[in-house]
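Morning - adenosine-5'-triphosphate inputs below, output right after.
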Amino acid sequence: MTSVADQPEQALEPRPPCGTAVADDRAAPVPGTGAAPGAAPDPFDQDVLPAPRNAQIALLRSLLAPHRRRAWTASVLLLVQQAAVQAGPLLVAYAIDNAIPQVRQGQHGALIAVALGYLACGVASGVLQRAFIRVAARVSQDVLIDLRGRIFRHAQSLSLDFHERYTSGRLIARATSDVESIRELLTDGLEELVGVVLSAVYITALLMFLDWKLALATLVSYVPLYWAIRVFQKRSMVAYRKRSTAVAAVIVKFTETMNGIRPVKAFRREEPNDDAFGELNHRHERANGDAILEMARYVVGSRLIANVTIAGIVLWGAYRVAEGGMALGVLAAFVLYLRRLYDPIDRLGMFLNSYQSAAASLEKIAGLLAQAPAVPEPAEPRPLPEPAGGIPGREVAFEGVRFAYRTGGEVLPSFDLRMPAGQTVAVVGATGAGKSTLAKLLARFYDPTSGRVVLDGVELRDLATADLRRGVVMVTQEAFLFSGTVAENIAIGRPDATREEVEAAAKAIGAHDFIAALPDGYDTDVRKRGGRISAGQRQLVAFARALLADPAVLILDEATSSLDVPGERAVQHAMHTVLTGRTAVIIAHRLSTVEIADRVLVMEGGRIVEDGTPGELIAGDGRFAGLHQAWRDSLV
Ligand SMILES: Nc1ncnc2c1ncn2[C@@H]1O[C@H](COP(=O)(O)OP(=O)(O)OP(=O)(O)O)[C@@H](O)[C@H]1O
């Protein structure tokens, strides 16, 4: 039996270099549910999902849009701060060529003015930098909060179909390591990156002002430097994509193993898991090493270019000073500026590194955010009609439904079914017959490939999510409990319920006694010590949750785990309570459960092969009669 949380996570097998393969099909539409299997390669095999062209830029813009004014303020602060910083060598040149000769003639005014000017520039630069950091930090923190929130909200809004293929590990990587690399850029890298670019512009202008011939010679060095930066950018982008994919693979393996720690222990998977994790860890290490190597290549190359240029300029400048064609102060200022120009060049590699890493992360996040839910909200939702007088539940119909999972063949070839309001229907059949698929279509976890699922005449596709949630509830096998108290877990079905209503639901289900016996009763935290409750008790909590939600249609994926006899009896009793007064579909594994149904459907290969009351089917000579007889014999 397959239930929502039971779906095995797809193993992520990163295929570096991943980014290159995706770059070509950015504009490809994000496929919807039920695409023909086996056609094109699955984009979910890649870590970068297809996104519309320029999705990263659009994402960045939309993140920054609410902070436009503060971003402009930060830019102006940085602009003025850099002007203050770059005034220094110019003042030095003035001091050497004008102020010091004046001191020799006994006039100290100019030198004192230069010294005060230098001090003022230093103070202004410090004050402006502080103001810039404050403003920029606020913007970056707000952007990160927004981004993390968007990833969480979007991931939650995406359909089951997406989650079955993307894996939670990859989602965690998006929300943690990828957001972290954007944080690094925003908080540390961006200021330096913009600062370096800005100072390069200022310094170039000042060099031109000081001596245009030497400035032109300096400009020549920009050509190989630009080339070195471009090569570094291209190569490190690939390296960073690989690294980010490798990080995600490590996280995926980690979460997959820890989520499945019970089967891991039961099947002694520790050693093979260690090996697989070791390989992924090494892959991560190699990807990291490649990124560092790219950085090293760039630093060595750019330093070589810078040093050769400085040496050439000092030599030429010295000759010109010696010949009297240039003032010593100008050469001194020139060399000071050159040092300022080239010094941050290897740091520029580092900023570009964080920029590349952030760009790779942004690309992946943009790809994730570009995914549209395969089960979208209707543009114009239709309300459910008022319930017909006196009849509990709502009528359910499957009309010409066909369905295929995106990663498999057709599961329901052509399916028609009508369940009158208030009927309890038990669905039985061999494993893989399509019982859970039927339930998931009714809960609208997926939309049919063709045909429609209808609730009281309204197609599920046209129902607003809130109506759908109130109308149809599915209780899955594993009866998942969220972190929080028992009371909160029951109230999930109706968050505005009072404590009395929560307790009344628990009492009706027969869960009150064991809950009251927990260390803090209804306020016991289910994830803390003492809050551990058994599988049968978890089911009772899930039933109480469903009873409180009071949906018109309840789908119950009966647990296969065998309970002890009193436990089973308690669950059977609770099931009876929760089914009464609504349309109900039970995916039944126990034939004792079938007996409480009004109608039994036997499924095989996605089709209904028998349909009738339990009595009729037992009395007949079909599959169900055989199964029932075998069950009775086993009881004797
Ligand atoms: N998420 C999925 N992606 C691809 N194929 C799926 C998926 N879930 C189920 N299938 C396939 O659809 C078919 C029907 O599965 P379904 O879970 O509906 O059967 P079932 O009758 O509920 O079986 P069981 O009692 O074992 O849960 C099976 O062949 C199964 O392999």
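Note: Residues 1-2, 7, 164, 405, 407-408, 411, 429, 431-437 surround adenosine-5'-triphosphate (CB under 6 Å).

O.
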